[in-house]
Write a structure and sequence with these properties.
With about 100 residues, this protein is an alpha+beta fold. The chain is built from one helix and five strands. Helix content is about 15%, strand content about 35%.
């Protein structure tokens, strides 16, 4: 019985550690660099959300976040979704983004 409890605790602790949600329901992330590879599906910005790495092309118009290479790496909070028209499969669309404070 003790082994089962220890295993259950480890599973729950691991799941909680992988959770990237902040108190306001947004994900914590880090914009790390510009993707300056030269290919048809390349470009945009590289962002790490939890243990995953994605790319995005732009921020919403109403956002006050200005992404530039001088500010990188930049910690942010965001709402996002996987891009429906992904070319390479790692593209996301940012719904809302704020600089982490």
């Amino acid at each position: 019985m003790a082994k089962i409890l220890v295993l259950a605790f480890l599973v729950l602790a691991t799941a909680k550690a992988c959770d990237t949600k902040t108190a306001d329901g947004m994900d914590s992330a880090v914009i790390t660099k510009i993707d300056n590879r030269d290919c048809a599906c390349c470009g945009g910005w590289v962002i790490e959300i939890g243990a995953e790495t994605y790319r995005f092309y732009d921020v919403p118009e109403k956002s006050d976040v200005e992404v530039s290479t001088e500010k990188l790496p930049m910690e942010v909070k965001l709402r996002w979704k996987k891009s429906e028209n992904a070319c390479m499969g790692d593209e996301i669309e940012i719904i809302e983004i704020k600089e982490k404070q």
